[in-house]
Amino acid sequence: MKLVMTLLVRDEEELLPLNLEHHLALGVDHFVITDNRSADATPEILADYSRRGLVTMLHELDDDFNQWRWVTRMARMAADCAADWILHCDADEFWCAESSLTAALHSVPADYGAAIVPRFNFPPTSEEMEPFYDRLIVRETQSTNSVGRPLPGKCCHRASQSVQIAQGNHDLQSDDLVVLPGSPPIEILHFPMRTFAQFERRIVTGGRAYVRNHEVPFDVGATWRRLYLLQQQGRLRDYWDGQVLTPARRAEGLAHGALQVDTRVRDSVQAAGRSASPIRT
């Protein structure tokens, strides 16, 4: 079984090597990656993996976050790469399975051609000096987004030239793919809030892009739009502070089952000998 993963990235030098090495270790064979106007070392990192035959690179110069178009293009390119399954990921997401992603997707009955994989957020900590994978080892048991709705999962599917990926990679449309009820034995560990500076940069970049996007409906990207509004109002730090996992919140959450310790990303980095050490931001 050949697994191909897509990523849409922008200024992800901190995460990209860790993300690629993590997924290679779990059975991903190749990546189709679109770089959207990165100004850091992201293009050089991608070029290195491309020279090794592991990445097919695309460059997208538009600045309106038309994610559904760009990821759909990658999905169809991945199908041309003879992929059996295509997984749609962001740089701050780490897909995890008990033994390998290959084995987990082998368990999907042949009648089903797509699946939605659940995600779980890791709340930020007040300490920001150590690498995120050493600090962020407690995750939510059930996550919500910034507007209080259940955190949507991410889609994966068998190769198809008719597939269209929804904005956010949360869903898909296809003439020939039936979505699995429930989910395969895979979880996505999500690290969107690693430091406040990183988080604010992300919200400003994404929020401005959504303002420029006149194609997707206004209710699409609600999380980005709300957080960008808070940033424009000078209230994003207050939102961050409300998410920080204080010792009291951690103890209460662990005691009541709302939080759980999860060291799989830290363990993945350690298993790789930290050969893909992130660049500090």
Describe this structure in a few short sentences.
This protein is of the alpha/beta class and 281 residues long. The protein is 35% helix and 20% strand. The strands form four sheets. It has a six-stranded mixed β-sheet with strand order 3-2-1-4-9-6, sandwiched between helices. The protein has a three-stranded mixed β-sheet with strand order 5-12-7. Strands 8-13 form a two-stranded antiparallel ribbon.
Describe the structure.
- With 281 residues, the protein is an alpha/beta fold.
- It has a single domain (3-194, 261-271), classed as Alpha-Beta Complex (Spore Coat Polysaccharide Biosynthesis Protein SpsA, Chain A).
- It is 35% helix and 20% strand.
- The strands form four sheets. Strands 3-2-1-4-9-6 form a six-stranded mixed beta sheet, sandwiched between helices. Strands 5-12-7 form a three-stranded mixed beta sheet.
- α6 (196-212) crosses α7.
- The chain is globular and about 50 Å long.
- The termini are far apart.
Question: What are the main properties of this structure?
Answer:
globular; three-stranded mixed beta sheet; 10 helices; disordered C terminus; 281 residues; six-stranded mixed beta sheet; alpha/beta
